[in-house]
Amino acid sequence: PRILILGAPGAGKGTQSANITDEFDVDHITTGDALRANKDMDISDMDTEYDTPREYMDQGELVPDAVVNAIVDEALNQADGFVLDGYPRNLEQAEELQDMTDLDVVLYLDVGEEELIHRLTGRRMDPETGDIYHVEYNPPEDPEVEARLEQRDDDTEETVKERLRVFRDNTEPVIEYYEDAGVLERVEGEQAPDEVWEDVKATIEDAA
Ligand code: AP5
Ligand code: ZN
């Protein structure tokens, strides 16, 4: 299936995308991971304000559309089924996506702001596997893993607040866009991870 997963920063897109790729035969296309792996690439020839994605990301701002559109276009061309995570984040990107591919299901993980802040400031990443943890909700069992966990550069309180503002201003209209099109499948994201997964899985199975 061709799956789009929408949600605010910290809503659980990455966590549920990992479940989806385990269960269904699809690629995980994530603009956030792709940009983090290429934070220092030179984008100055694309007529951007800053020379690399890093400046945008560390401040919680959106990386320019031209850069992100190119990443998604290339990834979609190589994928059969996919779960797309982190894109589209504004209406221009949503229109771009419409020209690039059809979608079978559009999920929206609905989580309130207070919980989002708690999840983001407590998130830890395993740099070796890319696995996502949380100091309270989902700590690793293996002390060796725990010792190497890292915090994402943009998970500081100040940047989190800016990311949530960018979400409200730019990405909430995208949620409305799919809602108005009658294709948005809202999932209650403020449940335990396993319960969210049950709902996500059932929604995909119904749509596919
Ligand atoms: P990106 O990497 O996409 O970040 P984001 O959208 O802010 O989302 P996150 O990855 O922070 O959260 P998530 O929803 O994946 O949650 P997770 O599963 O990790 O983008 C980063 C930056 O890149 C942007 O700010 C921008 O600069 C740039 N960028 C990316 N895409 C772009 C685009 N299209 N255009 C322009 N710029 C772009 O979970 C969070 C935490 O909660 C974890 O600790 C997890 O363990 C925990 N958790 C998850 N589910 C639950 C649950 N059910 N209960 C309790 N805890 C849970
Ligand atoms: Zn993510």
Secondary-structure topology with pairs:
Elements: E1 2-7, H1 13-23, E2 27-30, H2 31-37, H3 53-59, H4 65-78, E3 82-85, H5 91-100, E4 105-110, H6 113-121, E5 123-125, E6 132-134, H7 143-148, H8 157-180, E7 184-188, H9 193-207
Parallel strand pairs: 1-3, 1-4, 2-3, 4-7
Antiparallel strand pairs: 5-6
Helix pairs in contact: 1-9, 4-5, 6-8
The structure holds BIS(adenosine)-5'-pentaphosphate (AP5) and zinc ion.
BIS(adenosine)-5'-pentaphosphate is lined by residues 7, 9-15, 31-32, 35, 56-57, 60-63, 68, 86-87, 89, 93, 119-120, 122-123, 132-134, 137-138, 154, 163, 192-193, 196.
Strand content is 5-15%
Could you tell me the CATH topology label: Rossmann fold
What is the class in the CATH system? Alpha Beta
What structural category characterises the helix and strand content?
A: alpha/beta
CATH architecture: 3-Layer(aba) Sandwich
According to DSSP, the number of beta strands is 7
Name the helicity range: 40-55%
Overall number of structural domains: 1
User: Strand order within the widest sheet?
Assistant: 2-3-1-4-7
Protein name: Adenylate kinase
Keywords: ATP-binding, Cytoplasm, Kinase, Nucleotide biosynthesis, Nucleotide-binding, Transferase
Family: Belongs to the adenylate kinase family.
Catalytic activity: AMP + ATP = 2 ADP
